[in-house]
Amino acid sequence: MNFDLSEEQEMFVSSVERFAAPVDVEARRRLRLSPTGYDRARWQQLAELGLIALAASEDAGGMGGSAVDLALVAEALGKANAPDPLIEHGVLAALLLERRRRA
Fold first, then answer.
1. What is the DSSP string of the chain?
2. What is the pLDDT of residues 1-46, one digit of tens each?
3. pTM listed for this prediction
4. How does pLDDT run across 75-91, given as a tens digit for each residue?
5. pLDDT of 36-46, one tens digit each?
6. CATH code of the region 7-102
7. Dihedral sign computed on CA atoms, order 52, 57, 61, 65
8. Residue of 24, 78, 89 lying closest to 54 (CA atoms)
9. What is each CA distance from 44 to 49, 68, 98, 100, in whole angstroms?
């Protein structure tokens, strides 16, 4: 089995890493304690990158990303200590969209 990333995946990871520049611990704490728990401007940037819809199928209006794609995003965000609730919200949104599509 070949576990090397494709050129497309490497470019994808690189763009996520650039977005997820390290967030210091104090800034992260302030965000988590804020009324929303996240930075709305960063969330908009995640949407523009297509990351919020990554796990949703293309039929449901998403990006049709794989579990590997999600893992790559989670790793890049985790390395940067990014405070964005992307994985939990993105996966939940994908499940809801898929359920709606099937109804």
1. ---PPPHHHHHHHHHHHHHT----HHHHHHHHHSSSSS-HHHHHHHHHTT-TTTTS-GGGTS----HHHHHHHHHHHHHTT----HHHHHHHHHHHHHHHHH-
2. 888 999 999 999 999 999 888 778 888 888 889 898 888 888 899 8
3. 0.79
4. 998 888 887 888 788 77
5. 888 888 889 98
6. 1.10.540.10
7. positive
8. 89
9. 9, 23, 22, 24
